[in-house]
UniProtKB/TrEMBL annotation:
EC number: 2.7.1.11
NCBIfam families the record matches: PFKA_ATP, PRK03202.1
Organism: Lacinutrix gracilariae
Chief location bin: cytoplasm
Family, per entry: Belongs to the phosphofructokinase type A (PFKA) family. ATP-dependent PFK group I subfamily. Prokaryotic clade 'B1' sub-subfamily.
The protein's name: ATP-dependent 6-phosphofructokinase
Cofactor(s) listed in the protein's UniProt record: Mg(2+)
Binding sites annotated in the UniProt record for Mg(2+): D107
Active-site residues annotated for this sequence: D132
Residues binding ADP: R25, S26, V27, V28, R29, R159, G190, A191, E192, K218, S219, S220
Gene3D superfamilies per UniProt: 3.40.50.450, Phosphofructokinase domain
Length: 328
């Protein structure tokens, strides 16, 4: 029989993403529903070390489901990477009577949680919050769907100006290690080419494709480039390369940057966050720990932290073929 938990902490850690507030709301309300006290931990592990906690009830999370960012703030903590730092964090939790916590963040945050759990046998559950969708054990991380919609909307706007001036645009989107965002927005926004970390398209093929595009009568072209694309050239280098080799094109670059992380979460992310928060709290109540909550085949399931951290999130290769066919 699992020990009854009376106080649960919730925090956001690492980079922020839309849907984190909806997940905080869900954890707080699931706690209220099960008569468990809930404490917000400010600024991730940094705030945990400092004992920066606030008691939260169902009403303290009103009006946040539609807000981007995180009301609990997020941070990266160097001190938590040390044994002394984690000891301080543990002492603060014990002092406040917090017996378990839910961390909303990326794989770094889960690694920290896993080590903390091993050292202090402290119950912890994770909710994946990052726009990159680069976490194993879930088809969707919180914020990913919102980011896709944000980026598609921006590329639609870029296309308006591209087609008015017969221009070629290289649009850089987030995705250092995985091309989920680039691949999906590329197809969704009708890009001519999509450059991702998983595949080296080759510069020659890129030129060929752009020449073909021009010949077929297209007046403008959009190439979506993930930050970590395998060709290894950034968007400015790509612009120079294409301009040197294809004088018929006027090339422009747009680096979307942090705007991709902001904004109101999509309905999908709000629902996902609500489901994940409930699952995280109920897993702790059932005596489970050291798992990340995730979405698999539309079912909310759990994956052990070590698998979530070590595993690699893979792109859907069918999308590569679809993109090829669409850019004819
Ligand atoms: P993002 O996807 O936005 O990078 P993340 O959760 O991976 O999010 P990180 O900065 O890697 O972000 O990790 C967040 C925090 O987790 C770190 O600042 C640190 O406090 C803690 N952490 C990460 N790795 C470890 C580790 N090996 N040991 C202890 N704590 C860690």
């Amino acid at each position: 029989m699992a020990k009854t938990i009376k106080k649960i902490g919730v925090m956001t850690s690492g980079g922020d993403s839309p849907g984190m507030n909806a997940a905080i709301r869900s954890v707080v309300r699931a706690c209220a529903y099960h008569n468990i006290e809930c404490f917000g931990i400010y600024r991730g592990y940094e705030g945990m070390i400092e004992g920066d906690f606030v008691k939260m009830d169902a009403r303290s999370v009103k009006g946040i489901i539609n807000k981007g960012g995180t009301i609990l703030k997020s941070a990266r903590s160097k001190e938590f990477r040390t044994k002394e730092g984690r000891e301080k964090a543990h002492q603060q939790l014990v002092k406040a009577g917090i017996e378990a916590f839910v961390v909303i963040g990326g794989d770094g945050s889960f690694t920290g949680a896993m080590i903390f759990n091993q050292e202090f046998n402290f119950p912890v559950m994770g909710i994946p919050g990052t726009i990159d969708n680069d976490i194993f054990g879930t088809t969707h991380t919180l914020g990913y769907d919102t980011a896709l919609n944000t980026v598609v909307e921006v590329i639609d706007k870029i296309r308006d100006t591209a087609s008015s001036h017969n221009r070629l645009f290289f649009v850089e989107v987030m995705g250092r290690d995985v091309g989920h965002i680039a691949l999906n927005v590329g197809i969704g926004a009708g890009a001519e080419e999509i450059l991702i970390p998983e595949e080296d398209l080759g510069l020659e093929r890129l030129l060929e494709s752009l020449r073909r595009s021009k010949k077929s009568g297209k007046s403008s072209s959009i190439v979506v480039v993930a930050e970590g694309d395998k060709i290894g050239k950034n968007v400015f280098e790509l612009k120079d390369y294409v301009e040197e080799n294809m004088t018929e094109y006027e090339v422009r670059v747009s680096v979307l940057g942090h705007m991709q992380r902001g904004g109101a979460p999509s309905c999908f992310d709000r629902v996902l966050a609500s489901r994940m928060g409930v699952k995280a709290v109920e897993s702790l109540i059932d005596g489970h720990s050291n798992f990340m909550v995730g979405l698999k085949n539309d079912v909310i399931d759990v994956t052990p932290f070590d698998q979530a951290v070590k595993g690699k999130s893979k792109i859907n290769t069918e999308l590569l073929r679809v993109s090829d066919i669409m850019s004819i």
